[in-house]
Amino acid sequence: MSRVLIIEDNETMRTGLALVTSRMGHDAVPVASGAEGMDRLRERGADLVITDYRMQGMDGLEVLDALKRVLPETAVIMITAH
Known about the structure:
The protein has 82 residues and is of the alpha/beta class.
């Protein structure tokens, strides 16, 4: 089982991604912002991060940049509705 951090500001998308990820047998950790996601990464790490590209505050590119400095081996999938 892998730990998947889901960073998505849209509650419906966040909940849906967490549900699908959990049903696939993974430990889904959904959070609502880039800053919260980085806090969780520092605390618990992740095998995979799924992050929204466009978010208020810390956007997906900023998450990617910060993540690669802290945990460069972590895989990232970036999504967007735009």
